From TrEMBL:
The gene is ispF. Involved in the biosynthesis of isopentenyl diphosphate (IPP) and dimethylallyl diphosphate (DMAPP), two major building blocks of isoprenoid compounds. Catalyzes the conversion of 4-diphosphocytidyl-2-C-methyl-D-erythritol 2-phosphate (CDP-ME2P) to 2-C-methyl-D-erythritol 2,4-cyclodiphosphate (ME-CPP) with a corresponding release of cytidine 5-monophosphate (CMP). GO terms for molecular function: 2-C-methyl-D-erythritol 2,4-cyclodiphosphate synthase activity; metal ion binding. It comes from the Bacteria. Belongs to the IspF family. Binds 1 divalent metal cation per subunit. Pathway: Isoprenoid biosynthesis; isopentenyl diphosphate biosynthesis via DXP pathway; isopentenyl diphosphate from 1-deoxy-D-xylulose 5-phosphate: step 4/6. The record marks H35 as: Transition state stabilizer. This is 2-C-methyl-D-erythritol 2,4-cyclodiphosphate synthase.
Amino acid sequence: MIRIGQSIDIHQLVEGRPLILGGVSIPFEKGLLGHSDADVLLHAIAESILGALALGDLGHHFPDTDPAYKGMDSKEILKRTVGLMEDEGYRIGNLDATVLAEKPKLKDYVESMRYNVAQIAKCDLSQVSIKATRGEKMGFVGRQEGIAALCVCLLTKKDDE
């Protein structure tokens, strides 16, 4: 049995916040606005897993109205989502994610992001693909107003060896 999920997450870039993508702190003059640490990449990955399992979205599991999640590390969000996946009897087949950011350039951070995700998702590095692209100066990404991330995941039933 396999299940497929997809998600997109978008956060606004603002001054005075750190930029964290894929659990990696990236030097930049702006960071992402959000109730948690606003790691748009980990949010898209976690929500694609929830979608594959038909368990709703991040807002259902981690509402921004709950002070318990204020400033939460998104690695913990992904960790808890992976726990839900395991409770349902699934594991990662593969994850394919893309970050849309005009700046900063992310190529030097992608391998660290992949490593973080593989560790948290309890899968092999070869099962995690993370790519980055720019907005080519078009739209909110191109104007550097925000960063978006998309993810498609394939889950496989643990019993299917």
